[in-house]
Amino acid sequence: AQLFYLYIGTYAGIGIVIQVMEPKKGSTPEDGYVLHVDCGKIRYPSIPLSKHLTVKQLKYRLWYLTGVCPPNMVLQLKGTDGKHLAGLADEDKPLVHYSPADGCVLQVMDTNPKQLFNKAWLESKPAPKYEMSDEKYSQRENTFRRFKERILKERPELAARTNHQGEDAPSSSQSSCSASSVSEDHQEEEAAALILGTRCRLQPDGRLGRIAYLGRVPEAGPGYWAGVALDDPRGRNDGSTRSGLRYFDCAPGHGTFVRPAKVVMLSGAEASEG
Question: On the CB side of 32, how many CA atoms lie within 13 Å of its CA?
């Protein structure tokens, strides 16, 4: 049998999660049935039910599964073909009275008008997402883009600082700001001390990954860079720069270019992790 964890909702601010066991195909209780449960647009895992279970007892059991309160619950029995078989109106009668069969469906309906299942918006299509063109966004005042342009214009050294901290390939304007202060051989010795394919940790944030590239990345700026394939999606690329030039392969969001001095090679047990 397979164990399912179902999130029902919240009660008094406490989240309710229950465990439901779905029986394997062909595993029917000796004195009962295996039925499917539908509530609104949700199909729950099939559950084994005793044929001696009364409708009232059944409602309380389905309450924990669907979140529908028994006083507001209306049950209908449907065949495997979806056709209506019976309404389980008499709470004192046992389940066997309605002659269900394995694979039948218990349709749970909630008469509470405030219940989400009864909201009309569930039947409607989601509203289209508003998207603004890049040209229109550029014409707006007091945006983050305008703020960033103003700050970089007032303090161009920030672009160079970002470059040294090993962020992903910056824009061409940022590269030009830092080109005058960084030589083409910047951190060549640090890059020569690293080994391709070695597990590493980045400083100062501690991200883990594998050294996938060593060399120049003109778009990122002068000097030498280390391309790292990160274990977690905490990077900004997939091994390529913004212009589309690829230096190594990794999953999207797992790649980053950093200065070699920020890379610490791992050995022993640390290198075997991940």
Answer: 17
Residues 105 and 215 in one domain: no
Same domain, 104 and 161: no
- Predicted pLDDT at 58: 87
Q: Which of 14-28, 102-116, 178-192, 237-251 has the highest mean pLDDT?
A: 237-251
* Amino acid identity for residue 245 in this structure: L
Domain count across the chain: 2
Note the residue count of the chain: 274
The reply to whether 203 and 257 lie within a common domain is: yes
Beta strand residue intervals within 63-207, DSSP E: 73-78, 84-87, 105-110, 199-202
pLDDT digits (tens, 9 = 90+) for 198-231: 999 999 889 999 999 999 999 888 999 999 999 9
User: Looking at the structure, do residues 48 and 157 belong to the same domain, yes or no?
Assistant: no
CA-derived radius of gyration, the chain? 31
